[in-house]
Sequence to fold (463 residues):
Amino acid sequence: MKTVGLKIFRTATIAAGALATGIAFSNGASVTTVRAADEPRVIEIKAKKYEFAPAEITLKKGEPVVLRLTSTDRVHGFMSKPLKIDTDIPNDTTRDVAITPDTAGDFTVICDHYCGLGHGGMKMKVTVVE
Amino acid sequence: MKNNFDRRSFLRVAGTSLGIGALYSVFPALTRAHGADAVTRTLAQLNGEAPAPFSFVQLSDTHVGFNGPPDPLGTKAFESAVATINGLKNRPELVIVTGDLTHDADSSDEHAKRFKLFKEIAGRIGGAQTKVVPGENDAALDGGDMFREHMGPTHYSFDHRGVHFIALDNVSRGRPEVGVEQLEWMKSDLARFPKSAPIVVFTHRPLFDLKPEWEWFTSDGDDVMNALAPYENVTVLYGHIHRENIHQSGNAKMYAARSLIFAFPDPATTPVKKPMPFDKDAPFKDLGLRRINGGAGGTDLQIEEVELATAEFSGTVGMDQMLKHGSGDAKDE
Fold:
């Protein structure tokens, strides 16, 4: 089984003077990352019934990142056992998850907080490259 | 108290080629085993009823209200199951339904109608008590309020002929979890029983990591199984995965029942979770039963998968026949 060593925390402060850059994803979506020289890259992920946007992200092995999670409708889950991520995404609060993947591969993150009839298909792909 | 009977002999599962579900026969071997007398006396004192042989049926995932795709059968398989149970010579005393009685609905009025239809169809089962637990379709959006209104509590326990049954709710908190409060209740509920007591836990989701990326797990399932670990005769029945599965965890054996609406594929060989396609030529394909025959003394279970397809309903002709005329003539073969 693939395992990835991660640290997870609920809040993160982005330093003043952060840099904004655009990141493109293989599915055509793009997100804005906010980054300071000594801060991890921040990737914004929006949840709504029954999808995550972007639906796919690529991380680099050993690179610390913060996944900034928000929901635009209701509470959703954000769970991957191999990535050791397990949190809810409330609809009124931003939730930050810091990770540093240490294993390359493809991983699936699912919504594990039941949100309606399309809940079973709500997932995203995380690719970790060398 | 020392008991030497083989723990595997507690729950002998005997099958018939009934159309749907699994028929369980409970421990005739226990009462013959060395040391069983003491267990019998103790359980009789605790429950007011000594262990005695009986049988019960597990049904699961009826999803009343679902109308495809992929499966246009609606409640036909569920109704066929009820007719089949009523036709059994060895009538079960209990019918246990392990969740997703209804398919979720966009409106609460429609969902309430589905609960009523489930009760109407289940109410046709004669001579057996029906015991249910919720699935996420029944109870995850409203914390179980509608389920409680129509079906009763989402977790509870009861005794039947010396067997202790525990209904566990791992859906109504929204996430796949039992929760600390219910776990403490279960521990307290178990405390009065000797470690040799026969215990059947029934719930919706698997209590182990069967396929987490398909949400086939319970996040605190290990806590539940650790609480059950000291007990020697534990059987866990569950649904949710719409296919048969048998898993051993310490002393406990876990059995998943097939669905009565559509099947999911084998996660070991299929990368994507999606229902198996509907086959008009074999409308009940993968909606079958688990036929299990106990060996001598109830050990060495022989398991045979029997596809749900009677002569009347097999093939395209049978499909048309069923859709036109219903499924009331299913037979106990």
